[in-house]
Write a structure and sequence with these properties.
This protein is an alpha+beta fold. It is about 15% helix and about 25% strand.
Length: about 300
């Protein structure tokens, strides 16, 4: 098949990321539930569905997508910033961001079909010894991802050239430029400038709190509670404040939802009261949206009201 051409667009006030910044939309508590990842190096353009609208083997694509769903592994296409099709080393990686199991292992495939039988458990490949930064540049999904993501991917000052990759859709288009740091699974949004502060924070073993969306796999109320508690208590270490419980105190699906979130602090439990409600005004939340929708807003205070 012929892969679609990359979109031509410009960043103006009609774009979802520009509107979100103007409104002051918060990216907090919007990280993915995924905790295991498959990264597939695939240069060239990607369509809206990156796997099936790229130069990846189209007989393999649906089988691979089926396996990733069955094994609950998030599948992302990656390419190096400024790549050419001839640059491909046919690399792929398995990453695990579950606490206590964090790791990312790079391998090389002889054919795309190899990925159907390769083990996704860290038992093969060369383990990465530094964080890997994935910058969403998936313009076929939303133009903001390309317009903000591609410049950031080119400029991000990671220690080595293989530490930064463009990637397919991460979610949260209006928070572009979006970055996920593996193997830990930390999501960032609205990353400004060249992202140097983000990289330097991770080199110190800390999160970059001003742009942190949350940690993948942590329930959204837990992400909101962690973010607030980190700011209040100054605990920025990657493993600080793990969530031990998220207890709802309202019925599922209530317009205003509340939880009690318990985290493990350095001096004992840290408890937070978390509330989420729909935004007061419905907005077009992506560049492709045709109908306005309400986002969720999060409100946190430390301490258990009970």
């Amino acid at each position: 098949m012929t892969a679609p051409s990359r979109p031509t667009a410009r960043l103006d006030e009609s774009r979802c990321s520009v509107r979100a910044l103007a409104r002051g939309d918060s990216p907090v508590a919007t990280a993915s539930p995924a905790q295991r990842w498959l990264l597939i190096e695939q240069p060239g353009p990607w369509g809206r569905d990156a796997l099936t609208e790229s130069r990846f083997d189209q007989t393999v694509a649906p089988l691979l997508a089926r396996r990733s769903r069955a094994e609950n592994v998030r599948l992302l296409l990656v390419r190096q910033p400024g790549e050419r099709l001839a640059d491909s080393g046919r690399r792929w990686a398995y990453a695990d961001s579950r606490p206590g199991r964090e790791g990312l292992w790079w391998s090389v495939r002889a054919s795309d079909a190899d990925l159907l039988t390769a083990p996704w458990d860290g038992s093969v490949g060369e383990r990465a010894d530094r964080p890997v930064y994935l910058v969403c540049t998936h313009g076929g999904h939303d133009a903001c991802c390309a317009l903000r993501g591609r410049p950031l991917a080119r400029e991000l000052p990671a220690p080595g050239p293989a530490d930064v990759w463009e990637c397919s859709h991460l979610g949260g288009d209006r928070f572009a430029a979006n970055v996920v740091v593996l193997p830990y699974g930390f999501y960032y949004g609205q990353v400004p400038d060249d992202g140097a502060d983000l990289v330097h924070a991770h080199e110190r073993g800390q999160v970059a709190l001003p742009w942190l969306r949350g940690r993948a796999g942590v329930p959204p109320p837990g992400q909101a509670a962690q973010h607030h508690a980190r700011g209040e208590l100054g605990l920025l270490g990657l493993d600080d404040l793990p969530v031990s419980s998220v207890r709802p105190t309202t019925a599922p699906g209530a317009e205003v939802e509340r939880w009690i979130v318990t985290m493990a602090g350095p001096d004992g439990q840290v408890v937070a009261s978390v509330e989420s409600r729909p935004s007061s005004v419905a907005e077009l939340l992506t560049c492709r949206a045709t109908h306005p929708a309400h986002s969720r807003t999060w409100h946190v205070s430390l301490g258990d009201p009970a």
